[in-house]
Amino acid sequence: MMANGPARIVVGVDGSPGSAAALDWAIDEAALRSRAQGGVGVHAVLAWQYHPRWTDPTGLGSLFLGFRPSGGGVEPYLPSTWETGAMPPSAAEMGARQEDEEQVVASQLLEQALAGHTERAAQHAVSLTGTAVEGHPAHVLLQYVTPDDLLVVGSRGHGQFAGTLLGSISQHVVNHARCPVVVVRGGGC
Fold first, then answer.
1. Taking the CB of residue 170, how many other CB atoms lie within 10 A of it?
2. pTM of the predicted model as reported, rounded to 2 decimal places
3. Which residues contact 137 (CB under 8 A, 6 or more apart)?
């Protein structure tokens, strides 16, 4: 398939200006390729990693707080079951709750990253989709692409969500991808 162009264009996003520039580039490239070969879509991938809060190196007892999504972020709170004197949840139960909450936050960040680009994609008649996947960004991107895809990443950046770095990620995917990779410089470069 690559002889005629990619089956799809996969873009690593993390909410940084570099990943926004990569997403813009991918949409423009998909529009150009769609005119020549028809129907090349763009799929954004936001990778995130689960970090249990009780592994906080400060040792300040974050184990005893719960966390919930709030206004696009995560805020601590005292679960109501503790307020009534019931037994606090186990570490495994807290971990499962926190992991679910982090998935929600990652999905919200993905929506925010795509929101600024949906109009551009629509203007170019490019299909724009996305997914939030748990895992190290470089590993997720490398596992997500096929040899028939084109992978696009930003050259530098640090997103709004812990574990979503692009910079060293771009270096890693360039060296290990099984498909062509484009590294886009962000910030109007």
1. 27
2. 0.68
3. 12, 14, 47, 163, 164, 165, 166, 169
Per-residue pLDDT of the chain (189 residues; tens, 9 = 90+): 445 667 899 999 988 888 899 999 999 999 998 776 677 899 999 987 765 554 444 444 333 344 445 565 555 444 444 444 555 555 556 555 656 677 778 888 888 889 889 999 999 999 999 998 888 899 999 999 999 999 999 886 444 444 444 457 888 899 999 999 999 986 544
Number of helices and strands in the chain (H, E): 6, 9
88 DSSP 8-state letter:
P
* Cα-Cα end-to-end distance for the chain: 31
Q: Which two tokens stand for residue 180?
A: 């062509």
Report the alpha-carbon angle 130-29-152, nearest 5.
Answer: 55
DSSP string of 19-61, one letter each residue: HHHHHHHHHHHHHHHHHHHS--EEEEEEEE----GGG-TT-S-
CB neighbours of residue 67 within 10 Å: 19
- Our CA angle for 17, 23, 3, nearest 5°, is 140
CB-based burial label for 78 (10 Å; 0-12, 13-18, 19+): exposed
* SS3 state of residue 8: strand
Domains and CATH numbers, the chain: 8-50+108-184 (3.40.50.620), 53-106 (no CATH)
